[in-house]
Amino acid sequence: MQKISIDPITRLEGHGRIDIFLDDAGDVANAYLVIPELRGFEKFAEGRPVEEMPRITPRICGVCPEAHHMAAAKACDAVYHVQVPPTGKMLRELLYSAFYVADHTVHFYILAAPDFVLGPDAHPAERNILGLIHKVGVEIGSQVIFSRGKAMDIVGMLGGKTIHPVGALPGGVSKAINGEERAQIEAWGHELVDFGLFSLQLFADVVLANQGYVDMILSDTFTTPMYYMGLVDENNLVNFYDGKVRVVDPEGKEFVKYTPEEYLDVIAERVEPWTYLKFPYLKKVGWKGFVTGMDSGIYQATPLSRLNAADGMATPKAQEAYEKFYATLGGKPVHSTLATHWARLVELLYSAERIVELATDPDITDPHVRNIPTETPTEGVGIVEAPRGTLTHHYVTDENGIMQKCNLIVGTTNNYAPMSISIKKAAKAFIKGDEVTEGLLNRVEMAFRSYDPCLGCATHTLPGQMPLEVRICDDRGDTVEVLRQNM
Amino acid sequence: MNRAASNIQVPTSRPKTLVLGLGNPILTDDGVGIYVARAAAERGQQEGVSFAEASVGGLRLLDVIGGYERIIIVDAILTRDGEVGHIHRLFPNDLRASLHVGSTHDLSLPGALALGRGMGMVLPEDEDLVILAVEVDDVLTFGETCTPAVAAAIPRAVEAVLAELDPGEP
To answer: How big is chain B by its Cα radius of gyration, in Å?
Structure first.
């Protein structure tokens, strides 16, 4: 069997690469994404006061610290059996909505849009935000910088710090907002709604108006039916901060809806001998290998899956965008990996609308934002939707609140198996009989970029353009050809 | 429209030189940049110089460095066959190898600098942005202390920072 390795993380030898195995005929047999795994968080956390977790766990990730902050705070609420007052909950969700606007903005404009605006075959040196500005105009850059900046200003205002927020505590948040702050957030929120609409219009103008891109989105190469996971509110509408986790099957029917404390009844983790990674799957469907469909327990947790798993969006403009999404792509559920980018923009608009909704709630300036925990701490699970997937924190403490056991399922982890499968499909289309077609690297990169994987879920950041190395090996493992991009 | 300008202007009173420790203080050697910056802050306080630490890259890094005319970043680095504890002196265009200055989720540092400059931000020229990168060993295990060879490099790295701040000193 031949093996092709795509090595995106050249700085960490032996970790973080894509292995593509060819069969004897030279066609793709399997593809696996191998991500560097951080070791020993459970041991690191054990013995610490559990209330430190909302401050420590954001350090796990330099990309979505706010998601860990919120999941940890919610797990602490559960450990201490304390109810968060309504305004405390709204302020957390307000911060979280602002974070979503910033995160989705960065992903779409920096990572996704250049592929479409400049084209997947554009030279990597041009296929970036600067190339995008050059082609579409400096206005785009201003919009991105301004909107992301305002969203992060809201995060900083509510979280105490912009980079690693500290505002959420067991039982609520550390500070209320006054009328002036509320008015400022509302004003920015309206501008972010405009930005969300602008972004969807850009997508319509650049991508949907180009039949070639629509065909690519709907092509078999980027289509993978599977189970879909997402947090929903009591009306089965998308929610990022709170609710139950709903999973729908590949035909869109509800498979299960579970509360955070039930997650171990639903999710199991598969261990494979060739990687440190564990592959979560639906326990009741079972692990059937790297295949998808009704009989395989593999699911995804992404912007696309959140839309598929819900019945709609809880805000009006996002609901309109949601309906257009499904009307254009042939109804629910949508199975196209590349549609994830569009789904992300629907979520961006929802988050912006939610900022305005929360900022205009009559109780948002109520000073009662925290209930001091008084119960004996025991065990608790906190779940939020991180931008890159459902994030679960599970803590067990002694009666003094000292951590005894800790388990995290981070967003990207949910998607390890789907990413491997999507990469395999993309690779199959561009490798035929030993011959690697021009465009393999870009397409494979596009296949896993839509999942926006956290490589190592930490601050192990690298040059922004993903370096890729494809090594084509013969049966004995000898390299016969090397292809490189961004190296 | 130039709405971006309201977001990116910084107070004129802000010191113009920044010493920035980058890294993750709960991932063993990954925190070395932060430890060096903290130690340098104890000895290198002077007018016009401020010290900061962060665990971010890309656009989030731009939030931190905007408004400064000269920046000294201290970061961790892993190079092929690198000698653990060795201190590299790099500039933005050398940065492919650094662990933190870019982000796979948004921009490389050169990309972020180009975008920021294009949007009118006050940012240093490339030659005024020095990256002192300490060759590290373990950045994948959770822990709050460095491995011995990296810990031993911290005093040398602090001296290197102070020398950057005051090149006239012997």
So the answer is: 16
